[in-house]
Amino acid sequence: MSESVTPADITVVRNEDAGRYEIHVDGELAGFTVIEVGAEVTVLPHTEIDEKFGGRGLGTTLVRLALDDIRARGDRIVPVCPLVKRFIEKNPDYADLVA
């Protein structure tokens, strides 16, 4: 007998008050990407995923959805966070966002 596994409910939200994008798994905060919004660019200095949620690719999901939202807002970025830099290197279709 095999047990069926239901995928976790994953959401990413922009939390203006905290100055970050947050990723939630089944309603629990799993990590965040800090944003420093300026007049012309958004700086992304740091991304953190709680080790309890490590190894699930949540950092990549968070960065991708944050960059998609930033693009939709018509903003450009300065990727300081190493995770964001690596993501853009591996996904050159996001390179146009870099100021």
What this model shows, in words?
By secondary structure, the protein is α+β, with helices and mostly antiparallel strands. It is built from 2 helices and 5 strands. Strand 1 and strand 2 form a beta hairpin. It starts with 9 loop residues before the first strand and ends in a 9-residue tail after the last helix. The N terminus is likely disordered.
Main attributes of the structure:
99 residues; alpha+beta; five-stranded mixed sheet; 2 helices; 35% strand; disordered N terminus
Helix content: 10-25%
Strand content: 35-45%
Mean pLDDT: 92
Shape: globular
Order of helices and strands: EEEEHEH
Please outline the major beta sheet.
5 strands, mixed
Question: Pairing-aware structural class of the strands and helices?
Answer: alpha+beta
Overall number of strands: 5
Using only C-alpha atoms, the radius of gyration works out to: 14 Å
**Which blocks of ≥5 consecutive residues have pLDDT under 50?**
1-6
Alpha-carbon distance between the two ends: 54 Å
Question: How many individual helices?
Answer: 2
Q: Strand order within the widest sheet?
A: 1-2-3-4-5
Topology:
Layout: E1 10-15, E2 20-25, E3 28-37, E4 41-49, H1 58-72, E5 76-79, H2 82-90
Parallel strand pairs: 4-5
Antiparallel strand pairs: 1-2, 2-3, 3-4
